Fold each of these.
Amino acid sequence: MTGQALPLENPAPHDVETYISAAEAHGSFDDPDHEVGDLQQLLRAAFGMLTIEQRTLYFLNPDVRAVLVSANVINDE
């Protein structure tokens, strides 16, 4: 289904779901690996805009820490 865009429900630039949906759509009509690659690209772009203080707050966020712990990147004892 190449070249055919999937409609996003009310795309909004301030809603993270817009970007997640775009990555999902790309993966669904091209190659599923594109979804992960797109999400990586989007995270890198967003992270690059954060200040050091914001990056620290991100690292301390319980949802972020849960992923890091589950991947054995950090030990949260």
Amino acid sequence: MSAGHGHGSAGTRHRWRLVVAFALTAGFFSVELVAGLLSQSLALLADAGHMAADVVTLGMALLATSIATRPDRTGRRTFGSYRAEIFASGFAVLMMAGVSVYIAIEAFGRLGQPAEPASGVMLVVGVVGLAVNIVALLLLRGGAGESLNVKGAYLEVMADALGSVGVIAAGLLITFTGAAVWDTVIALAIAVFVLVRAVMLGREVLAVLGQHAPKDVEPADIVRALEELPGVDDVHDLHVWTLTSGMDVATAHLTTAEQADSQVVLDAATEVLRTRFGIAHATLQVESADHTCEGATW
């Protein structure tokens, strides 16, 4: 028995947030890149590089939400194209990791070199960049808790906000100490932060692609809840996983007691999965007590 998905993935519902964040980020990226090149600030260039990754990541996230809602005309995508949003999140991880490595290489390469970044330009661009990032963060925060796709974009922008704070800090430190090395130190700190966030998001992406149980659902709890239903003697072959953010899926075999009404058991089990565990799509097989279940050997 199958229940419907609902009205689309969490990423699709929050697509407008991605659109506005993309416009803000893309608009500011060119400004920061030019300022970084003119001021010779590695912290500014590092943040501009990360913002470039933001532009690409947000663009991929928008494309993924569009693909996810595209109807299947082949008849072969039985789960639709919702996983596109998870692949976009994985792409965000790769972009974040790549940018952090690039920043680190550039920072170490500049150690000992006499570059003197223009601290005044760094301060102005850093403040403007922080304002842009805060607006984008406020927009994306509303969907980050529901969609892994939006969360990837949210973490990208969060790292950018920290980058802007780093640029401001570097500008202030250079102004008051006269030591240009602060530009390199701040750039390295940005690189480490971005890499840590990339690893954290990457673990969530791999959990979905590996079809692990959703992080807020314990399979043993589902088994107990189903076994407590009147007429259910046993629950086996339970599988529960996340198709995409906001779409958890489950399958299970239910062995019913003698005289139990299989339709009543099926309806009750479906309701428990939907209301207690947030699983709106469940495929349940009801078996009588005298039936020998011959499932897959794997």
Amino acid sequence: MSLGRPRVSLVVNPASNKGAAVAVGARVASHLSRAAEVRVFSGRSQAESVSILAHAGEDADAVVVCGGDGIVHLAVNALAQGEVPLGIIPAGTGNDTATALGIDPDPLRAADALLAALHAKSVRRIDLGHCDAVPVSPNADGRWWVTMLYAGFDSGVNERANRMRWPSGKRRYDLAIAAEMLRLRSRALTLQLDDQTIRTPMTLVAIGNGPQYGGGKLMTPGARMDDGIFDVTVVGAVSRLTLARLAPTLPRAGHLRHPAVTTYRSATVTIEAPQTVAWADGERVGDLPVRTVCVAGALAVLVPIGPSAPGLSRSEDPAG
């Protein structure tokens, strides 16, 4: 860290939460500037945000993003295997990575906690997933992801919602869920783990580096971002009624008690299923098959000082 006031690059996603992140970013920048030298950036497109993030760590003690899991995903791909830590101000709709790292959902309280962590050098290195998929940046080697990589029903919903032009917001996502429910079918999944190959019908498969996705769905509740291994959950062939009954249980991990649900642990996972697309952190990865590897300690993050975060398995000395 530089002498005196820490230098922070604050990158705001203007599209997060229907544009609400812009106002949040302005308040956060003013708040941070009381105790730090703050440079504020905002990309008008994903390509511009990628370009900004590629240089945001230069002459900075931390890169802080303000938005949802989408901007976090882009930042992870820019900062992976580097030394500049990432801080997150939650201002999106899901904020699953921030939740897993124990970051307060209130943006100003989150800013205070990140500043305290920066001054105390409360920096942790967490694991990331890496896969040989279309990179975020044209010059990158593959794709990094931080919370969850998934395929099947949920990725199908994302695909459909992305193609729709009407309605807007949450209603579009709800309509996409309804449409995917009508065409629900199991797929022939081949799952290659470290020490076994599994072939089974599946409705969806989720590879968790962290415990949750989709705004609090605890699909892999035991996953921790610092244990060097993925948790994998497979929902087998189920009916529309069963899937509808399982959905409301996900925030409390109730699906794990269902006989159609199986779980595994593996540091390397390959998923293959016909006509199926993988998504990660709410962003499109690409068509299956996809092979992903858990890379231990790949990202430095600012972690609030205090009780252990739900997505971390151990506590460390802030200076560690």
